[in-house]
């Protein structure tokens, strides 16, 4: 399952990334494999989404969230 497929309040564990270049940026922001992520908000038109990861809020575009594969 991809992070972009989660609904508000759902939780997932980061497993891997599909885009190498994007994965470097995401890991620098705390989205490390094994880290728990929770979807906290979704914009009215569905893009971007806000997630809680490593104790802070992170806003991602749907495309960016779709590169994160969850367990």
TrEMBL record:
InterPro entries: Fe-transptr_FeoA-like, FeoA, FeoA_core_dom, Transcriptional_repressor_C
GO molecular function: transition metal ion binding
Pfam families named in the record: FeoA
UniProt key word Iron: yes
SMART domains found in the cross-reference section: FeoA
Keywords from the named record: Iron
Domain Ferrous iron transporter FeoA-like, residue spans: 1-71
Name the record gives this protein: Ferrous iron transport protein A
Record organism: Mucilaginibacter celer
């Amino acid at each position: 399952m991809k992070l972009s497929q989660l609904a508000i309040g759902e939780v997932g564990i980061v497993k891997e990334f599909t885009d190498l270049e994007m994965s470097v940026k995401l890991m620098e922001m705390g989205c490390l494999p094994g880290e728990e992520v929770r979807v906290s908000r979704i914009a009215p038109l569905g893009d971007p989404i806000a997630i809680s990861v490593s104790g802070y809020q992170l806003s991602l575009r749907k495309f960016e969230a779709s590169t994160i594969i969850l367990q």
